[in-house]
Amino acid sequence: MRNRFPPALALLTGGLFACFSDRPSTGPEPPGNGTDVAIRNFAYVPPALTVAAGAVVTWTNEDDAAHTVSADDGESFESGIMNEDGVFELTAPAPGTYEYHCEVHPFMTGTLTVTAE
Fold first, then answer.
1. For residue range 86-108, what is the model confidence (pLDDT) as tens digits?
2. Contact 56/88 with Cβ under 8 angstroms?
3. In CATH, what class is 29-115?
4. Beta-carbon neighbour count of residue 1 at 10 Å?
5. d(CA 41, CA 67)
6. pLDDT tens digit sequence for 34-54
7. What is the largest CA-CA distance in the chain?
8. pTM, two decimal places
9. d(Cα 14, Cα 8) in Å, to the nearest integer?
10. Is 13 exposed, middle or buried (0-12, 13-18, 19+ CB in 10 A)?
């Protein structure tokens, strides 16, 4: 039996169906308003978080590689090495903006913004 659809039409319809995927978006994560940060795929998710002073912020390492949560100023907070499933909890310090990174993978960066209670 002969194919009733020309190859170009089959390619076009196949391409249209490929556009509708349940695969997650790979774009940037929006800023978060909760108190949890995942470390996933060598990134902090969300990369920016806003919390009230005194809130407990929790970072959980979902990667199979070791990471840290290290304040850029070198003194506000430091998780130490977190292996897979490692957790770091921080009581949010004084109001301000705290930039942080991973000591093992310096390209990983995040921002914690602390507001007055």
1. 999 999 999 999 999 999 999 99
2. no
3. mainly beta
4. 3
5. 11
6. 899 999 999 999 999 999 999
7. 74
8. 0.73
9. 10
10. exposed
